[in-house]
Amino acid sequence: MAADDTRTAILSAAERLYAARGFADVTMRDIVAAADVNLAAVNYHFGSKDELIAELFVTRSLATNRERLNELKAAEEHGGGRSHIDAILAALVGPTLRGCLGPDKQRSDAARFMIRASIESIPPIRKIKNREVDHLKRFAAAMRRALPDHDAVDIDWTLHFALAMAHQTIRDGERLTKMSDGRCDLNDVQAIIDRIVGISVQALTGRAKARA
Amino acid sequence: MAADDTRTAILSAAERLYAARGFADVTMRDIVAAADVNLAAVNYHFGSKDELIAELFVTRSLATNRERLNELKAAEEHGGGRSHIDAILAALVGPTLRGCLGPDKQRSDAARFMIRASIESIPPIRKIKNREVDHLKRFAAAMRRALPDHDAVDIDWTLHFALAMAHQTIRDGERLTKMSDGRCDLNDVQAIIDRIVGISVQALTGRAKARA
DNA sequence: GATAGTTTCATACAAGCGTTTGAAAAGCAA
DNA sequence: TTGCTTTTCAAACGCTTGTATGAAACTATC
User: Fold this and answer.
1) Which positions in chain A touch B208 (Cβ < 8 Å)?
2) pLDDT in 10s for each residue of chain B, 212 residues
3) Dihedral angle at the C-alpha atoms of A176, A179, A181, A183, nearest 10 degrees?
4) Could you tell me which of A25, B32, B56, B199 has the fewest CB atoms within 10 Å of its CB?
5) Does residue A2 approach strand C to less than 7 Å at its CB?
6) Could you tell me if A199 lies within 8 Å of chain B, comparing CB atoms?
7) Where exactly are the structural domains of chain A?
8) Which CATH superfamily is domain A53-205 in?
């Protein structure tokens, strides 16, 4: 097997297993079995388990951020340089929600891996996380441009809460389903995005947004 | 040392360490060192590590639920059998927020332990968690009584989102502080409760609630 | 096709984990 | 005190973890 094949086989197997079962439950032996490579291959290609996780996290977090910023940019171009607050918030929570809750076809291990990474704070990831703050600041800035009359503190809280709602829906959607006896539909991702965006916009502007 | 002293020393040391560092990072040797008891004492008194965690979780979850229901009951008595939606939501998110974010004096390891338990899903806890759904259903029912004209689905989503906002604020308040360059104040717990309750009520009624 | 450099492989290692053991210590009823 | 139960203790057990080793297999260059 070529060297790069082994590398990518390890990366994608690790990503898939971590996304599905979390970091604590997945051992290197699980990963190499799923990737069908030798146990020593991980240390040979990545140096250590932590460096494997770190490489995965850096790669996927750049990809997620790029996806969000693309949506943000598209929204800004469409709105002539100043996007509507709805579009900004949708760009923030949309990619991850679609990647984690959407139909199987578009579900990505990458998105679910990132959720795991944000939940189970482990040393190799904790060090890199500060970068995400800068990324969120760009969204906060866009929101301030869209709503120049609003208090920056309210905008920060709203951004924080929007992420919270998206995050918890991914993380514990099962509880919501049970609690509502199945009435809350987790399959209609766009409706969830609209709901979260609607509540967030309403929190800022005090006006209800027409439901899509 | 009397038998019960050893038991409670183990329980409170375990709770404190788990609350501070999470389940993955705390070993039995850490716990017995903090409790100043012998390593074998945990297995003697609780049977296994998992049973120790389970006992902690059951005890603390009953206490948390009792605290919430007390607040709910007080709200219902004050409102003559039908409480205001604000009071219901405050009873839901208040106890945990105060226990995790309040001034040191009233901060409780119990509340932060429960947050850990809800984040790091581990086998001994996963089995018991279904009970929480029934607990939340009582709050959903109270909300339906307070707002009889509202769609039950909207109420379930709102309850879910209120918990999400509270939970994430506890879990990742540090990121919010960094992102807002310290402008978002995590020390004023009552203001946070008001903010979460306000957004939730507004999401249901479409009207902004006067800020306290 | 010989040689040098990569990459794979089976196997072993040290360290840490939760748990068990059997004897010593403490508590207590008669 | 005597005898019995409960509780503590130091030590060790078996197992799993991430990592290291050195030989074998492969690849590519001359």
Assistant:
1) 206
2) 566 899 999 999 999 999 999 999 999 999 999 999 999 999 999 999 999 999 999 999 999 999 999 999 998 887 665 668 999 999 999 999 999 998 887 889 999 999 999 988 888 898 888 889 999 999 999 999 999 999 999 999 999 999 999 999 999 999 999 999 999 999 999 999 999 999 999 999 986 554 43
3) -40
4) A25
5) yes
6) yes
7) 1-47, 53-205
8) Tetracycline Repressor, domain 2 (1.10.357.10)
